[in-house]
């Protein structure tokens, strides 16, 4: 096994810039096998269907911390053996008035401005798209901008991908500037996993660029407390200090974070780096990801273990995305035991039953 690239030791020379870290990413079975005991032919087969990218930062993290991080990044034969689900269960393509833009809710649009990520997550809901050549081009970005300009019911644009923050600072500035020039766009949101997977990319210059375009929110994506490192904390501090509110969209993943203890720890730790957990997503019915799926019942149990036990500041909503383009719906554990004209019987977080008198009208 080869010695790991040492980020600490090299931070002042080789890895002084995020581009250098990214360019050392592992994307072939042969190179991965130098660091991990993997079967080269299996990895090769899977990466023919779905690309792999593991950058040195995440590589060293997952080697040091173990399986729950490895599972998110290392290709698994189950990805290509899975015949369940579909490539695009939530029908993003069908609800696309122009390529790479999905319009599902009345007042907001999801706009994919990058097809690259700092790590290709094996459970990705956009496995069909990310990391593939083409997909996002100048012409799709122009068409998206034009569509948003013409549709004045759109008050919020969510930049997604791929990862928008993998674009260069000047490209990000240009995209945000174009959106800001559209009067009806009030809120801009960026969805990015970069603070977790390549925190070195969050530079002061990036934050200074983004802050010119407020009100702007960033939702990031952490799935395990071990991903909250001092590098990730520093990245989030740079964004928060630029006045950018941070949220987190965690995906519930079997073998990664599907226990009350891990999820409680993750939610509490997110708060300490000034991230307010936003959603926990039940994994979508995407082909090639069924080995990550828990039952909804298990998901509800985990949400229940948060209510009352951790600060309300770090209790996100548990969301399920309905197949067929129905959209996201919040799921809640059942606390109401019975309802009559006079009273409701409600269970508290400890499972004790209380009566609540109904208002007599
Ligand atoms: C998730 C999603 C959004 C954003 O939904 P919020 O509930 O506002 O976070 C917008 N458009 C599409 C197509 C989405 O999938
Ligand atoms: S960072 Fe997001 S879009 Fe990119 S591979 Fe991971 S889950 Fe998919």
In terms of topology, how is this protein built?
Blueprint: H1 7-10, H2 18-23, H3 29-35, H4 40-49, H5 56-65, H6 67-73, H7 78-81, E1 101-105, E2 108-112, H8 138-150, E3 156-160, H9 169-180, E4 187-191, H10 194-197, H11 204-210, E5 216-220, H12 230-241, E6 246-251, H13 260-272, E7 275-281, H14 296-304, E8 317-322, E9 327-331, E10 336-339, E11 343-347, E12 353-357
Parallel strand pairs: 2-3, 3-4, 4-5, 5-6, 6-7, 7-8
Antiparallel strand pairs: 1-2, 8-9, 10-11, 11-12
The structure holds pyridoxal-5'-phosphate and iron/sulfur cluster.
Iron/sulfur cluster binds at residues 117, 120-121, 124, 126, 130, 161-163, 193.
Structure at a glance:
Helices cover 33% and strands 17% of the residues. It has 361 residues and is α/β, with parallel strands linked by helices. The chain starts with 6 loop residues before the first helix and ends with a strand.
